[in-house]
Amino acid sequence: MRSSAPEPAATIGDVAVRFGLPQHVLRHWESVGLLTPARDSSGHRRYGPAELARIAMILMGKEAGFGLGELQVLLSGPDPMRHADRLRRHVAVLDRRIAEATAAKELIEHALACPLPFAECPHAREQIDARIPAEPA
After folding, report:
1. Are 71 and 62 in contact (CB under 8 A)?
2. Is the pLDDT of residue 123 over 90?
3. In this protein, which residues make up the domain named HTH merR-type (predicted)?
């Protein structure tokens, strides 16, 4: 029996172009269970508004640093916020990465401003020495 609802019309090619993604990425996301596009009578994938929103959420999650496995968990239910503990852990990881990137940026900016060669700059030397592990006891 045929549904009276219109079939989603966007093909995989249309969606790939629209999002700037290779088609194989969409197929991979489907193979790992992140996407479940409808199929038309010929078996071709068709993407409707719900699938387009899901692709946007996957891309947002990837931009936030989540892997596909994490996204599978976060997007497995109706509300990603029900995984607040996982999201909090990810915020802590992002905070650490931001601190590391900020320290690296400050070191590079200082090196650019220092008139001495890098290995002779007192600030750089301090950073270098801090990276040398102590001798084992």
Report:
1. yes
2. no
3. 11-77
pLDDT for the residue numbered 81:
81
Contact call for residues 23 and 12 (beta carbons, < 8 A): yes
Residue 46 clears pLDDT 70, i.e. is over it: yes
pLDDT at residue number 125:
85
Residues near 64 by beta carbon (within 8 Å), at least 6 away in sequence: 90, 94
Q: How far apart are CA 136 and CA 128, in angstroms?
A: 19
Core vs surface per residue 58-84: b (16+ CB within 10 A) or e: beebeeeebeeebbbebbeeeebeebe
For residue 75, the 8-state DSSP code is T
How far apart, in whole angstroms, are the C-alpha atoms of residue 67 and residue 88?
15
- What integer pLDDT is reported at residue 30 of this predicted model? 95
- Alpha carbon distance 104, 110 (integer Å): 10
Positive or negative: CA dihedral 76, 79, 84, 90: positive
